[in-house]
Amino acid sequence: MQLEKVKIHIDTKVQYLSHELLFLAQSGQPYRGTIYVNFTSIGETFNLQDFKKYITSLRDTTLNAEDIAYAIFHTINASIDTKELGVVVDLTARGGIQQRICFGTEFNVINKANIFQVR
Amino acid sequence: MDEQEYKTKRANEVTQLGSAQTQYKYEYAPQVLETFENVHPEMDYWVTLNADEFTSLCPKTNQPDFGTLIINYIPNIKMVESKSLKLYLFSFINSGEFHEDVVNKIGKDLVKLMEPKYLEIIGQFYPRGNISIHPTFSYANEDEKYKEIEKYRFLNRNLNPQRVG
Question: What is the pTM of this model?
Fold first, then answer.
């Protein structure tokens, strides 16, 4: 899926996160997790409505868990030009095992709760 | 009942737990729910099931909704088996349901399945438009004791409003 480009200032540090990732394992079982995207702008970012649609489109996509960060990275990289793009995906535990999958430039994630969400 | 009898009984009661060929349903599937027998029916005790990965769709926009369901119940004879509950809840992935409706629908399905002494479900859905919705379903059987529990919990819900944000 192509994400629409949006012009922004050069050298803006951008980090997006979504707690609403869902995709399917090879077994058909759902994976749930949080996506973190981090980059430095070289003059553009992507339309967030498109990004929301892209995340939603993963709900019926089957992937190995370890490939999810690459899949997201590739979609962003094919849509906009950035510096130091990195993607981190934290998956919820399956069978007692938690997974963090990273692709691209390493960065420290900033974890924010959903606003107004009771924890 | 000795240990072997107990294991045999439990193994025969449920089919999906431990199955190597789990079939995931992508449409509403109450038929996947399974029960096992409560072997302590003389006791009143709480069972809490937390489902942090519940998801369905908005019936109007088809946008995904997410939430946590907290299921509390006092079992009678039948108890819901948790893997079948997982499969049942996942079957809502493509269902268009308002939060208030889906919590009641699940509550009614579980009441029909188990005929519990008491059951409640609290839905804590992710915010949409800065508003998060938390519907509560509750049911008690005809016994006055459980009617009292339902009444007490209904009247006392959120006397101390939860901090949000």
Answer: 0.89
